[in-house]
Amino acid sequence: MISFNIPVFIGKEQQYIKESIENNQKLCGDGAFTKKCNSWLEKRFNAPKALLTTSCTHALEMAAILANIQPEDEVIAPSYTFVSTVNAFVLRGAKIVFIDIRADTMNMDENLIEDAITKKTKAIVPVHYAGVSCEMDKIMDIAKKHNLYVIEDAAQGVMSTYKGQALGTIGDFGCYSFHETKNYTSGEGGAILVRDKEFIERAEIIREKGTNRSKFLRGQVDKYSWVDMGSSYLPSELNAAYLYAQLEEADKINNNRLASWNLYYDNLKDLYEIGKIELPFIPENCVHNAHMFYIKCKDLEERTKLIEYLKSSGISTAFHYIPLHSSKAGVKYSRFHGVDRYTTVESERLLRLPMYYGLEANKVEYVVKKIKEFYKNN
Ligand SMILES: *Cc1c(COP(=O)(O)O)cnc(C)c1O
Q1: Distance (Å, rounded) from C-alpha 207 to C-alpha 214?
Q2: Can you list the domains of the chain with their CATH numbers?
Q3: What pLDDT is stored for residue 26 in this prediction?
Q4: Cβ 292 under 6 angstroms from ligand 1
Q5: 310-354, pLDDT tens digit by residue?
Q6: What is the longest distance spanned by two Cα atoms in the chain?
Q7: Cβ–ligand 1 contact at 357 (below 6 Å)
Q8: Nearest CA to 178 among 272, 294, 37?
Q9: Are 38 and 58 in contact (CB under 8 A)?
Q10: Does pLDDT of 40 surpass 90?
């Protein structure tokens, strides 16, 4: 069986966990390995502040608090995304306003944002699907014009760029995921990136249960106390140690994934050229991280047959999000602004192929061979 995903394991994880137990004698958050991860992210992505969190879900929750989202505020997001993108704002009482996606990148259609803005709009939440950037210049211009926050859901976008800038560092806040399904992992984990220095102190406080403990640990105050709302958003050192081993090897992991991605692309090109399938589109300004390789079938029916065919050939594949606006909670907490021209139909056509660090070339070739066999008969 060819797995859909195998969590990356690079080799030094156990050694670093051992170090955090034996040498550092510190297992709670914000020890040596958390600091190493934070500064690695800051240096690599040119971010004024990066803070590890327990998940991307929690990074998004922190961003919603930092953006001071209040009940009845509106937040614009794509419907084709993971629940956490919007739950973070629903938890603050906001209403979600979904807009349609572009068929080519599956990202929010930047040309539909402005029409969805009302007096209540507070933030735009672009999701960089498959690690391919949204049209950030346009999104940032609109946000500036209407005085809105931009919170990037860059869960899938670690190591991707838009016009040379790292995803997650362009908007006011950027949120990364280190869940085991992502390119770099600590099992569960994430990070928040803060663009403007004025938000750094409050970010540290919210992450530390609403206390100024970070300041205390730096010797800037002589005791710490409750100063704001907050929660426990910092991961254990064990998770940070695991993650750090992978960040150190980020280029190796990235290049390996890109090689698999390119192999899929090159080998499936002829099926695309005869109009049987569609392939991912990478806009010119975007460098992606091979988070995902997907194809698009003709429709839901064909996709269902292809999934079955590949499964019977020992290949695990996966479709993706059920659009949030048509789900039970979506009906309650959101509205869809405009026409759902692409969100539903495109999501029904999309099929993700096996993709993970260390995926062997012969497995990619086998998957391609089976897809071609299927289309010979369909
Ligand atoms: C994975 C993912 C999340 C959630 O990440 P966690 O770290 O599991 O909380 C949020 N948004 C998107 C787009 C994701 O792919």
Answers
A1: 10
A2: 13-247 (3.40.640.10), 250-377 (3.90.1150.10)
A3: 84
A4: no
A5: 999 999 999 999 999 999 999 999 999 999 999 999 999 999 999
A6: 74
A7: no
A8: 37
A9: no
A10: yes
